[in-house]
Every structure is written in C-alpha cells, then in structure tokens.
Amino acid sequence: MSEIVSYRDLIAWQRAFALGVELYRLTAGFPDHERFGLTNQLRRGAVSVSSNIAEGYGRGSTADYIRFLKVARASLYEIDTQLLFAKEFRYLKDDDYANVKDRLDETDKVLAGLIRSLERR
Q: Is there a contact between 91 and 29 (Cβ–Cβ < 8 Å)?
C-alpha cells in the first residue's frame, strides 16, 4: 500500500473525481431547458463529493474529516436520486445510467470504508 501524502492519493477522492468528470460528460447531452435544473444539480453534486473529501482531509482533525466525508457521501445520495430522475425523463441511455450508477456505487463503497476506518481509530 502506498503512503498517503495528499488527498489526491486517497482512492475515495480519485473515484469521486472520476465520477464528477463522467457526470459532467453525461450532462452535456441533457436538454437545454435543464441547464438550470437537473444539469446544474448533478454538476454541483459532482464537484461537491471530491471537494468535500479534499476539504475534510485538510481540516486537521479526525472529527472534521469524518464530518466532511459524510457530507460527501450525502452528496452521492443526492446524485443517485437525480440520476433516477434523469433516467425517468430519458435524458440518459440505459447503458449510460448503468455505467454511472456502477461508478457511483463503487465510490460509495470506498468512501464508506474510509469513514469506517477513521471512526475505528
């Protein structure tokens, strides 16, 4: 296992960042009338997850770190719900939805594991 010297070394952050990039790519194909609706919400959530992981890492206390990781996880749940809306409105192809949902679930698992490991300390 490699040493963690930056938040960028965290697998949770790497997965969250990749999810964010993917969400930006997918929402580029959403209808123009969703620019200030679902597109905006998904993009804000996409940035929020990796940003909260990074901010929590830099806070300097385990309690703050865990709190920010839980905020990041809550953003994942918001994204999950918003993706269901996008699927229901047929803004996403079934394959695209399945792929991004898999990526979201994997990010959630890694983030949950990080939270558990910090809470055990």
A: yes
- Residue 89 domain-assigned (yes or no): yes
| Residue 111: inside a domain | yes
Query: How many structural domains are present in the chain?
Result: 1
Cβ atoms of residues 99 and 120 within 8 Å? no
Q: What is the mean pLDDT of each run of 10 residues along the chain (121 residues)?
A: 87 98 97 95 97 96 97 98 97 97 98 97 86
Cα–Cα dist 73/52, whole Å: 9
- The widest CA-to-CA distance across the chain, in whole angstroms, is 48
What pTM was computed for the model? 0.94
Domain CATH for 16: 1.20.1440.60
User: How far apart are alpha carbons 16 and 108 in whole angstroms?
Assistant: 9
State residue 4's pLDDT score.
87
Does residue 1 lie within any of the structural domains?
no
Is 62 a member of any domain?
Answer: yes
The answer to whether the CB of 44 falls within 8 A of the CB of 88 is no
Structural domain for 98, as ranges: 7-120
